[in-house]
Structure formats: structure tokens, C-alpha cells
């Protein structure tokens, strides 16, 4: 494949991923522009997932980052009312398509329903 064509395809994929992330962040009440800032976008994604910000450090550890990203993807999907399967297949395996569906589709952010929030709800009832 020609290197110019590869570059164009890479650029298109990057723009689509940024557009999807931007919309997801906006729906979650976070700044959309965070999608274009490296590392900070991972921090914001963790917050959208309901995970602590220090999880960004886990993304720096080889092999651990794969598992952490799968967990974050499932949590983001759940916080938008989607299934864990959508999180794994749509947001983890096929990120570009998944974030476009989540960002531009009808899914609404339902708040951080991660483990910490679930524990708090259980304690109040």
C-alpha cells in the first residue's frame, strides 16, 4: 500500500475517533476538546467510566493497560446504558465505530454507575 494512502487512512481514522470521543465527552458533561489532548483524554475517559484519575498510570504498564482499557470500555458502555458486550466489542475492539455510535447515537449519559457509586447506593438503602 502506498505510504500516502496509509497516511490518509490513518488521518481519517484519527479524526473519526476524535469526533466520537468529543461527542461522548460532551454528553457526559466533560469538555469535548479533551479528546484532542493526549493522556488527558485517557484521564477524562476514566472519569466518564467512573474510575479514579490515577488509573491513567495503569495505562502505562504493558499488558495491564489492555485489561484496564477493557474495564474502562465496559464501564463507559454501562454509564451510557449499553451492555458490557457493547463495551468490549464496540468500545474496546472497534473503538472508532463504537465511540461514533455512542457519541452520535441516541445513548444518554446516565451518570457514574461504577463500583464506588454502586457501593454508596447499597449503603443508603
Automatic annotation (TrEMBL):
<keyword id="KW-0472">Membrane</keyword>
<protein>
    <recommendedName>
        <fullName>Signal peptidase I</fullName>
    </recommendedName>
</protein>
<dbReference type="InterPro" id="IPR043739">
    <property type="entry name" value="DUF5684"/>
</dbReference>
<feature type="transmembrane region" description="Helical">
    <location>
        <begin position="85"/>
        <end position="107"/>
    </location>
</feature>
<feature type="transmembrane region" description="Helical">
    <location>
        <begin position="56"/>
        <end position="73"/>
    </location>
</feature>
<keyword id="KW-0812">Transmembrane</keyword>
<dbReference type="Pfam" id="PF18936">
    <property type="entry name" value="DUF5684"/>
</dbReference>
<feature type="transmembrane region" description="Helical">
    <location>
        <begin position="6"/>
        <end position="25"/>
    </location>
</feature>
<keyword id="KW-1133">Transmembrane helix</keyword>
